[in-house]
Give the backbone structure.
Amino acid sequence: MGKRIKRVWHKNFLKYMDFIVKHPNYAGMPEAYKADGSIRWVTSGKSEIGQKRLAWWDKKRKELKIKKNGPWISKVARAIHPTGKKFCQICGKEMSLDYIYPNKRSGFSPGAMSNAPDRFEGYHTYNLCCRGVQDTGRHRDNLNRYGEDRRAYENWADGDWKAASWLMKVFNKHKVSPDHIGPISLGFSHNPQFNPLTPAKNSAKNNRMTFADVKKLIELEKNGASVVSWHSKYIWDILKNKVQTDADALKLSKIMRRNIHQILLVLSEISKQGYSKFLVTNFLHPEYAFYSVAFKDFDPETGSYKEMIKISGDKKQYANNAKRYIRISLESLKAYQKVKNRNIQTLKSKNLQEMIDKIILLLKNKKIKEAKASLYKVCSRLADELAKDF
């Protein structure tokens, strides 16, 4: 066997390690320091120290009242992390623990993968930026398992999320970046239809729409497509025909971003009050998980295809995919309430708060249909208020 190569840890990661070890959220972590005073960041989960740390994680789980099923330790790691971001050990790049990032190999994936109790704060030392190179056990084929676009879950987007995400993989395979005509982060649907762009142009565009995008979306609607999610249709319908320039499109983008921000806060509050089942049953679509998708005669120049082929099945991996979709959607709401300084103005309306309280009361009295109708009214009221800024 060859001599093991010692990794050089980036200075940003070293500072991050020191911050985490000293943070009160990790107080009592067994064997935090070695005899020489250096941080014991990595340990084997099967070792004596690893088992002590596993007991520490389980204690944290109980404090947070997280059920010991599924990826419980990952939930604990995310719940106690003080910033929601970590630096990569290799390159020093900072990435979010919640959001996903474009990657030419795998499409979309978490910024950092959980790895407790082997790592001190519960995450792999390297982020997505260096994962394909550093993790020899997670080669290209394995990375494709993480190709679902989590933004669809996190923004509670309508649309056939399974077909859309698999089409994104086809784009990436042809080294073309799939651009959502209507960005998910603005409240649009996650449908299997994208504009082909270079990765650089797609990154630069971010979540800003152009006048051409708005016209294309309106055209798709006229042809029977559902382009916007239920929660953002109100603001879209009010303002879409007022857009006449790129400047108008940019203004609409900003307003729709504020709208989805408010919506996610409303959904977060409903979930926080114990009515997650109401949200899952009425607004998520795990049924899309139960088939595989292929695209016949894909054209990377236009992003079009002649036929989408779906094959249904009841594989265990499909069921796990459906559960993951629901889990991430709900976890994102919990995380959304905690994140501060989003640089987006929050509407403060007594009437809106009263409407949210009414939804909670209706759910408490098991009046599901009425609660759903009231939630739609909240979306409509938000749209009316935000539209005034156009």
Remarks:
- The two ends are 66 Å apart (CA to CA).
